[in-house]
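Bumping my old thread because nobody answered last time. Still need a sequence for this structure:
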């Protein structure tokens, strides 16, 4: 619904409009990205679309009649809604986030899964400039190199997969990604502020309940402060 001068009127949803556009433009692929897809009960959110999300039921053969079907009086979906074959749904999620619902297995099997490790994000720190030489993404070169070394040293202290050692109870899923270090732009490259206002807090959450939490945090801080290669 959207507000009007006379109250509210029913309008097409974002996903409906997206699929309608994709259906009319079969020559191109369309990507619908849902950030942090697990921040709700996904199966309930998708509702009747749960069926046609399955790759085996894409396209017109997967048409379904939703509870709002009588409101569709024209267009491609008049006889039932479907997800066009040229639509790809991409969802991102943090699988260690304890504050959100998990995805049920019936929904999980409808997706392919790709793990993105913190080490896979390190290139985000590399500087990218426009034609005028202005920085438009990443960090300045010298700062980026320092950030990479600190990130590598900190994550190795959290859990070193090669050495099979680190903080008890943690693994690579708990590594700190490059998005944290991109916040250095907000602090004029001050690593101490980044630690105090962003990284320290998440590490304290990781260590909650650990009898040696303070000692472990100090070890992680020492690793974070090192700028030489591990």
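Sorry it took so long. Here it is:
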């Amino acid at each position: 619904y959207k507000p009007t001068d006379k109250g509210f009127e029913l309008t097409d949803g974002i996903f409906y409009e997206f699929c309608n556009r994709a259906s009319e433009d079969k020559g191109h692929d369309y990507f619908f990205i849902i950030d942090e897809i697990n921040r709700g009960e996904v199966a309930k959110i998708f509702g009747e679309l749960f069926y046609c999300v399955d790759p085996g039921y894409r396209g017109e053969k997967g048409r379904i009649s939703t509870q709002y079907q009588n409101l569709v009086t024209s267009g491609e979906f008049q006889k039932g809604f479907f997800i066009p074959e040229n639509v790809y749904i991409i969802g991102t999620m943090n699988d260690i986030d304890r504050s959100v619902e998990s995805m049920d297995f019936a929904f999980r099997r409808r997706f392919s899964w790709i793990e993105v490790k913190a080490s896979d994000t390190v290139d985000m720190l590399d500087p990218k400039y426009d034609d005028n030489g202005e920085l438009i993404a990443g960090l300045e070169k010298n700062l980026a190199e320092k950030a990479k070394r600190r990130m590598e040293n900190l994550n190795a202290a959290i859990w070193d997969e090669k050495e099979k050692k680190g903080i008890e109870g943690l693994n690579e899923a708990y590594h700190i990604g490059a998005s944290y270090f991109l916040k250095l732009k907000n602090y004029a490259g001050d690593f101490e502020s980044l630690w105090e206002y962003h990284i320290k807090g998440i590490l304290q959450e990781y260590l909650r309940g650990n009898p040696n939490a303070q000692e472990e945090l100090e070890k992680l801080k020492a690793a974070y402060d090192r700028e030489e290669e591990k």
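The helical segments are 14-24, 42-46, 49-53, 105-108, 141-158, 178-181, 191-206, 213-225. Let me know if any region looks off to you.
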